# Entry
Amino acid sequence: MSAVIDDHGHAKDDHHHGDHHHGYGGMMRWITTTNHKDIGTMYLWFSFMMFMVGGTMALVIRAELFSPGLQIVNPDFFIQMTTMHGLIMVFGAIMPAFVGFANWLIPMQIGAPDMAFARMNNWSFWILPFAGSLLIMSFFVPGGAPGVGWTMYAPLTVQMGMGMDLTIFAVHLLGMSSIMGSINIVTTILNMRAPGMTLMKMPLFVWTWLITAYLLIASMPVLAGAVTMTLTDRHFGTSFFNAAGGGDPVLYQHIFWFFGHPEVYIIILPAFGVVSQILPAFSRKPLFGYASMVYATSSIAILSFIVWAHHMYTVGMPVTGQLFFMYATTLIAVPTACKIFNWLATMWRGSLTFETPMLFALGFLFLFTMGGFSGLVLALAAVDIQLHDTYYVVAHFHYVMVAGALFTAFGGIYFWLPKWTGKMYNETLGKWHFWLTMIFFNITFFVQHFSGLAGMPRRIPDYPLMFETWNKISSIGAFGFGFSQLLFLYIIVKAITSGEKAADKQWEGADSLEWTHLPSPAPYHSFETPPAIK
Amino acid sequence: MQQFSARKSGQWALIAGLFAIAAAGSAHALVWNLQPAATKIADDIHSLHEYVMVLIVVIFVGVFGVMFYSVFAHRKSKGHKAANFHENTTVEIIWTVIPFLILVVIAWPATRAVIAQKDTSNSDLTIKVTGHQWKWGYDYIKGEGEGISFVSKLSTPRDQIEGTAAKGENYLLEVDNELVVPVGKKIRILTTAADVIHAWGVPAFGAKQDAIPGFIRDIHFKAEKIGTFRGQCVELCGKEHGFMPIVVRVVSAEDYTKWVDGEKKKLAAAADDPAKVWTLDDIKARGEKVYAANCVACHQANGKGTPPAFPPLDGGKITIGPKAGHIDIVLNGKPNTAMAAFAKQLNDTDIAAVVTYERNAWGNKTGELIQPAEIKALRK
# Structure
């Protein structure tokens, strides 16, 4: 630890850092906490619970699709499953996971003691369990959960029971939580950096979150508007999305996707940030093209607002509309390719080792690029006409969301667990987790490209016989994938309870402040006096 | 290392085994790619897709060739020491410009395909397609066959879906009334919907268009092969979304003319006289058929429905209440629910029959008989 420049002398202050039970103990500590680490931990556990709930729903879907015909669930319940699987995974699992990372890491990486608005931080988290409960409660009200798909297209939403209203309120709550979290993140990053930590010295993870937070602030209110209009169409006689009253069902889709496309980048940009921390650490080489990474991320964020209608090529836009959205969408490939090349250049002539975080980062790089390529195919309006709302789309966005965001979240957890808990996970089991996840993921989703190309629609509980083989393989893969995640839970719990002690700088090549300036586990208040930045 | 490769070969054996199990489960040949094209546009889409896939594979192999080279050559365990470069503006510019140029190369054929797809001018035949929960209505509105109008529903028997009978070859892709069009003629399809958004599409034609309630959209196709082509509704439209297929039979010009003649005769013969006076048993038997075709998906064969979304008719408030209310809900539907308005889908006789049936089936014993004339009077 000779490299540590720590002018608040954590060693002799250990008793002070350990003294974090000045508030409540037990459960009340977690309810009242304003500490970014406690809140980050709660975000991560909440997201894992939701991941298990959403995953169980996915397994119900895959079990029904194992064979043609209706065997396990009725069509109504099947569509409720696809709807809730999507909503829970997007809003309950992936987004909170990365907010958890943001909470844990941003103060440590910019040399701050905590987040800017500590009480609001508590509130942003504690909204989530209520939102999650509303979503799950919708199964138990008359009519059950809404069977409308996670996109909640009008006017099907008008036909749903009370579960739809609960879902709308859940979305409102989730939106509030995200907006508060984002304001907090922006304020923290802009105001609480240690002296000398200029914007262009921030770790890339912080940069990606700064940009993501702006995306959230700009897009979440749009979603809130869309679902509110749905609510008033349902109950108060408005006709925003009802042609008979002068509205337009397609308007809903425009509004939804104006939120929905930035949402995709809200999910993937923090993942880019995590990868940009992991790859240099295990290549033992600085990130290649730091500045261009920042610019590429910003370009992706700006472009994400002008491509929304590529989700709507089949609504019957004019030819100029199809062409504009096609060109704008393919343009996103340029900054994305830049990022991939920069990551490869980071590895090039490095000194590589392949611990679990690195494996997940490489898995991300490989599979996310495949998801990017299938995205390029889908961007071409003419080809998309064939693939729209088929399993090709399902395969595409699972390559981006699962292999993109989820793999990275796993990688990030393995990477920072030693810093967070001061304990090491079992490296052999971690590698097993990676390879099982990697293999079963591809068994599940790669074959869906084929059924999609051949024309199998999404969101159907039963299918023509020609799609049977791919669905069988996919279902087998899905169960393997699902059960492999129990291994992850075991590894994490084992590490926390009885892991070996981790070093302060567990990874040789890691160079951000939390590794160079803080012990493992990191003290309760990261930096009480700002560190000196070279 | 030994142990590692043993584990790896074990994994491959596992994967191969999974494929074998899965393949054994299906008698069908594997479908890998877009369905064989039957129109020029579908053919163009195939070429465009193949062209882009070739580019993608080349780039993929190139880029990940570099990655895997690095993974093998630059590993610490081989004693590779890390270099320290981390910036090079020239390289950055090159790898920004190259993807951009590749996009330009893709954009040219992609743009031409979009323009061809969107050109619905000069069609020989115009057919309006209306999406209903959960069937398709077809109206021939311009060209040979003008005036023909029918509803097309899934014809796969329920017991095949529930697994009590063996599944037929065209399981879930067969309908009672197929859309018939002549070969080599440009067909313009107008889509709309009666309730929620559906999507009409046939993969072999490279045609897909959402059917949006309250709006008319159009697409076109010109089939170059005689044959039967199948598709499915592709926009989630409620619980039976997976059960509303599209079947288009492309026939020669002569066969098409024959079909039109036959269809017109059938329409004339099938036209029910709304003044006919029916007996209870006759109209109940007719009503049972109408019920099986239109109502059974939600309200179930036993009339119990699946409450609360689909209320029971057996002992239901409306079905044993005053008949005026019962006829009204069948004619006009119930707003904001899946209960459709059947006024335009069924004729007077059918509506009279189904209402009579519902009022006298299961535990309902009203004994009332509704004549088509009553419905006719109520329509005004």
In short: Chain A has one domain: 28-516. Strands of chain A lie at 423-424, 500-501. Confidence is low (pLDDT under 50) at residues 1-19 of chain A.
